């Protein structure tokens, strides 16, 4: 790696203002976003996976930061492989100041590589006051807070066509067995029950995680996520068996297993909310709403709605989440001003900008729910915030990328094979354990 670059701001006052600390002349603390243009003339470079509408909406947040501090911003979209892109930029001496990291495992990798600056006292104070402790834990490595979770995803939502459920004479179910019964009623009325995006292995990990969290409980979930529990544990086999009950039922899955394996995530939403519906329900996170609205013109809350992922057996309804954490790179050319941006992102004011634009959830409990533009998003955000420390981060996002985040390999590929043939959960658990052991050891 290139040697660490030291950023020299123009004068002590600019430095301490960027950090939100006490100014040199004995004046009081000034926070980033104080509206006094304290960072005029500086530029903060930001990298993240977002593109399209997400990038445009995040730019609105960055523009609000500029309006308050005077600092310009420059956003670069990395694509999905953020760790490789950022690593290359660091090696080339062109590290961004701030990175929006989409996976816990990547944040931990960055910290262990020595790339990250611990968050400032101002940012830490905001996290303590506005976020459930679980979000601080996921942003920390070995007790040091490096990441501020600005954008979250609620991955325990089942989206449905109200017309399809009405035609089948069923209501949104609260238990997994009732979900299967409701699905069969939908199938009997002329549509398949579920559209499953099996072409994208990450969606199958989300299916498994919701079933496992509810059925096995949070302690086993945490142990499995850290690989303190082997994937051959009976709880894993049991969860795979529960999921296999759905996957193997051709009446429940649009196009059967073959059709599901040829359906990507946008296609799975289209099969429910597109011009020629093939299914009544699609499971995935709150971001389904954005696709249904933006691509297919569905009115959220009217002809597209959701219900919480049902509890499995005697368990509780799960709340699985994902999210993007803002981290500051030591090697950034202006990492001090980058820290000021993260301090701003920690405020409800910053979250309100994107909340008003849509396609966004914040784990910041200080954000007024009225900031969201529709009742469905408001309800989803409320569910996420009220879940508090019962929220569990996407398990595959906590794993090494070789196991939990690589197309055609590891958990993604093994669960696709399980969707193709769900007859032997025990054998699938064995394959998952072999892949996990190799990845975690590496």
TrEMBL record:
Keywords: Signal, Transport. This is Sugar ABC transporter substrate-binding protein. The lineage of its organism: Bacteria, Bacillati, Actinomycetota, Actinomycetes, Kitasatosporales. It comes from the Bacteria. Gene3D superfamilies: Periplasmic binding protein-like II. Belongs to the bacterial solute-binding protein 1 family. Pfam families: SBP_bac_1. The keyword Transport applies. Residues 1-23 form the signal peptide. It comes from Streptomyces longwoodensis.
């Amino acid at each position: 790696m290139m040697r660490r670059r030291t950023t020299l701001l123009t004068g002590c006052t600019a430095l301490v203002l960027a950090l939100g600390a006490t100014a040199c002349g004995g004046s009081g603390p000034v926070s980033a976003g104080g509206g006094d243009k304290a960072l005029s003339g500086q530029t903060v470079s930001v990298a993240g996976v977002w593109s399209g509408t997400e990038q445009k909406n995040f730019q609105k947040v960055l523009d609000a930061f500029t309006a308050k501090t005077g600092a310009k911003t420059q956003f670069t979209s990395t694509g999905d492989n953020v760790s490789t892109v950022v690593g290359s930029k660091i090696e080339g001496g062109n590290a961004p100041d701030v990175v929006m990291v989409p996976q816990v495992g990547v944040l931990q990798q960055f910290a262990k590589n020595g790339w990250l600056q611990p968050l400032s006292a101002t940012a830490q104070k905001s996290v303590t006051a506005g976020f459930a402790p679980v979000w601080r834990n996921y942003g920390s490595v070995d007790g040091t807070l490096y990441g501020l979770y600005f954008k979250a995803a609620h991955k325990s939502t089942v989206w449905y066509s109200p017309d399809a459920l009405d035609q089948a004479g069923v209501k949104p179910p609260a238990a997994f067995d009732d979900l299967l019964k409701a699905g069969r009623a939908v199938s009997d009325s002329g549509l398949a029950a579920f559209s499953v995006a099996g072409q994208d292995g990450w969606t199958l990990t989300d299916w498994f995680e919701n079933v496992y969290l509810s059925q096995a409980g949070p302690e086993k979930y945490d142990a499995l996520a850290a690989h303190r529990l082997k994937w051959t544990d009976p709880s894993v086999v049991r969860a795979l068996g529960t999921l296999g009950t759905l996957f193997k039922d051709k009446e429940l899955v649009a196009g059967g297993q073959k059709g599901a394996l040829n359906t990507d995530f946008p296609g799975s939403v289209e099969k429910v909310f597109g011009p020629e519906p093939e299914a009544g329900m699609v499971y995935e996170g709150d971001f389904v709403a954005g696709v249904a609205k933006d691509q297919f013109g569905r009115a959220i809350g009217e002809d597209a709605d959701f219900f919480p992922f049902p509890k499995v057996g005697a368990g509780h309804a799960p709340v699985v989440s994902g999210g993007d954490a803002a981290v500051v790179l030591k090697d950034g050319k202006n990492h001090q001003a980058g820290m000021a941006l993260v301090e701003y992102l920690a405020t409800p004011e910053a979250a309100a900008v994107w909340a008003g634009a849509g396609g966004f959830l914040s784990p910041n409990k200080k954000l007024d729910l009225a900031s969201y533009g529709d009742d469905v998003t408001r309800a989803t955000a409320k569910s996420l915030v009220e879940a508090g420390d019962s929220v569990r981060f996407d398990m595959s996002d906590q794993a090494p990328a070789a196991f939990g985040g690589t197309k055609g390999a590891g958990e993604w590929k093994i669960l696709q094979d399980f969707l193709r043939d769900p007859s032997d959960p025990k054998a699938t658990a064995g394959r998952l354990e072999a892949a996990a052991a190799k990845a975690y050891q590496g």
